[in-house]
Structure to design on (164 residues):
């Protein structure tokens, strides 16, 4: 996998800031604007030169994946709004959202949008799942009302989370 560029790391930082803003009660419209700006700033991945080592890129990818696991998957298990009806699908959806969130893959895939729709149809209202569903929806349609509603749904849910 290609090593994230400085611009993709900035984009990742902006995405993280948007998620934190939503979870701490910032204006939903401000958080949505920040998330859309972060998504628009994400550059296309550049291939490594044929003679370059991929060891550092692989190490970075491993560290990014571990960070995502700790901050989203383990957090979902610890404080997420869980339900046996959607837990396996929610965890799978969060894991599948990681590469695009980390800037390692395109965020706009029909499969990710379909999975977002399927998990929402189960009634899942976990803030992280709603946030990643909103991102998947916004990737395909920047001015989507559905994405705005999902971002709005994620923000109040995040404020009610028990990890405060």
């Amino acid at each position: 996998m290609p090593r994230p560029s400085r611009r993709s790391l900035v984009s990742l930082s902006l995405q993280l800031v948007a998620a934190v803003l939503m979870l701490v009660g910032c204006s939903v419209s401000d958080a949505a604007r920040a998330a859309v700006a972060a998504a628009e700033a994400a550059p296309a991945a550049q291939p490594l030169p044929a003679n370059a080592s991929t060891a550092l890129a692989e190490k970075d990818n491993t560290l990014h994946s571990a960070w995502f696991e700790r901050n989203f998957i383990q957090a979902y298990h610890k404080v997420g709004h869980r339900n046996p009806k959607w837990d396996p699908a929610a965890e799978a959806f969060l894991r599948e959202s990681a590469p695009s969130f980390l800037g390692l893959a395109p965020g706009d895939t029909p499969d990710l949008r379909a999975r977002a729709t399927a998990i929402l149809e189960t009634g899942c209202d976990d803030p992280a799942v709603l946030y990643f569903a909103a991102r998947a929806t916004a990737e395909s349609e920047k001015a989507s009302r559905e994405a705005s509603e999902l971002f709005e749904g994620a923000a109040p849910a995040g404020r009610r989370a028990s990890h405060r």
